[in-house]
Amino acid sequence: MRRTLLLFAACALLLAHGAHAACKADKPDADPVSGCAKCSKDGKKCLECSERFGLTADGTCVRCTVPGYFGDKCSKCDGDKPDICLTCSASCGRRSCLGLFASEGRCEPCSDSCADCNAKGQCLACQRFYGLVNGTCQHCKENCYSCGDDASKCESCTSGYDCKDEKTCNSCDFGYGPSKKGAKDCVPCKSTGCTGCYDDSAKCTSCDTGFGLVKDACVACAAANCTNCDGDAKVCTSCSSNDTVSLGTDKATGGCAPCKDANCQTCTATDACNFCKDGFGLDEKAGTCKPCPEKATSCTFNATGTFVDACANGYGPDKAGKECKACGVDKCDRCDKLGAGFCDVYGCAEGYGYSDQENVCFACKEGCASCTETSCSYCLSGYAFADSSEKACTKCVDGDKRGDCQPVN
Ligand SMILES: *[C@@H]1O[C@H](CO)[C@@H](O)[C@H](O)[C@H]1NC(C)=O
Ligand SMILES: *[C@@H]1O[C@H](CO)[C@@H](O)[C@H](O)[C@H]1NC(C)=O
Ligand SMILES: *[C@@H]1O[C@H](CO)[C@@H](O)[C@H](O)[C@H]1NC(C)=O
Ligand SMILES: *[C@@H]1O[C@H](CO)[C@@H](O)[C@H](O)[C@H]1NC(C)=O
């Protein structure tokens, strides 16, 4: 009886104590007011405190009062002993964060250069310019910004440096070079249009399109459409071309002008063709274009003689490669690889397949564009494979869901 009374009294006391303040949780992402982050269902107790508060045994939150230099960085303390820190947050400045960990109730800095460490002080992440190697932070190589878990290999370099080679940052990036010969820094190349100045930012070794390298510097080429004028801004050494017009260097003006030969596709100089239009072949010695032998779409005239490189549909080069001859196989379009007399394996006209053994083009099954004796490679347009065995093609119908029946955008 006595015992029951005592217990009752204790309970009443606890209830009275807990009831004195109904739990009110702070709004997330707002400044803590009550210090409680999560209340119990009955709204009487706090279950979880906000940052920088500690939970007491009776379910209230009190502000941490951890002493020491980093005391205010304590994010969680013991509510009944608010001067004992349990978890610390990092101390961040404008450029980097110093990791802190709780040690004997205080916030202590993680090891040097460490941005985050565990409760035992073992580093989990390093500051910039440091790599995590076996739990400690080691300085990355020179000019290296981050080096992951191997300080000897660079992952990214500081601005101006390039770490493509051997994962070090000892060479400067495109358009950068050392401020003077032998220096270890990287500054933009001095000359406008310079793309490389690897030994010395004042000494350019390569220029952008439209510039020429003249005495260690880049100068803008004088002529329109000029892409390079190394040696002299007024003498163009290569010209730009577009799909419709091909330009070559013009010795007379130092500029660029259309290729002289009307049958020339691209030229280096206006009078030096290097690629002829279809049906014409380059006379390698003269740099001009001459008509190809009959039925040849491309050919070459060189010191040995005339050679056909490609023939019109239904024709192929003869054995010597000097003439285009009819393939000689019914329904054969291409016989370039084997020469006239044989059809290429995929050389038969659309809707026909090649039989290697018989050297004939045979008709594929209905709707098939290219086939072997046993299967169809793909269907004609307007047809699609009937099923996943991909053997037969059937006509597409209205609303046909098969992929090959969908209009091509
Ligand atoms: C990391 O530590 C282990 C064991 O102490 C050692 O064998 C290994 O060589 C160390 N690795 C580096 C990169 O220092
Ligand atoms: C040549 O330059 C002019 C003017 O800049 C330009 O309009 C034209 O497209 C260029 N031609 C070629 C072939 O690049
Ligand atoms: C190609 O260059 C010529 C002459 O320079 C110019 O007139 C034409 O507009 C250019 N065409 C294209 C597609 O850029
Ligand atoms: C001429 O062109 C043919 C075919 O491209 C080649 O086989 C031959 O070696 C060339 N001759 C010379 C002298 O370049």
What does this protein structure show overall?
- Residues 22-62, 109-138, 188-219, 258-290, 363-394 form the EGF-like domain.
- Keywords: Signal.
- This is EGF-like domain-containing protein.
- With 409 residues, this protein is mainly beta.
- 4% of the residues lie in helices and 37% in strands.
- The strands form 19 sheets. Strands 4-3-5-6 form a four-stranded mixed sheet, with no helix packed on it.
- β11 and β12 form a beta hairpin.
- The chain is flat and about 100 Å long.
- It starts with a helix and ends in a 14-residue tail after the last strand.
- One 2-acetamido-2-deoxy-beta-D-glucopyranose (NAG) binds next to loops.
Structural class: mainly beta
Fraction of residues in H or I helices: under 10%
Ligands and ions found:
2-acetamido-2-deoxy-beta-D-glucopyranose
Unreliable stretches covering 5 or more consecutive residues: 1-20
Broad shape: flat
Chain-averaged pLDDT: 85
CA radius of gyration: 40 Å
Q: How many distinct helices?
A: 1
* Sheet with the most strands: spatial strand order: 4-3-5-6
| End-to-end distance | 91 Å
How large is the share of residues in beta strands?
35-45%
Give the biggest beta sheet: 4 strands, mixed
In total, how many beta strands? 42
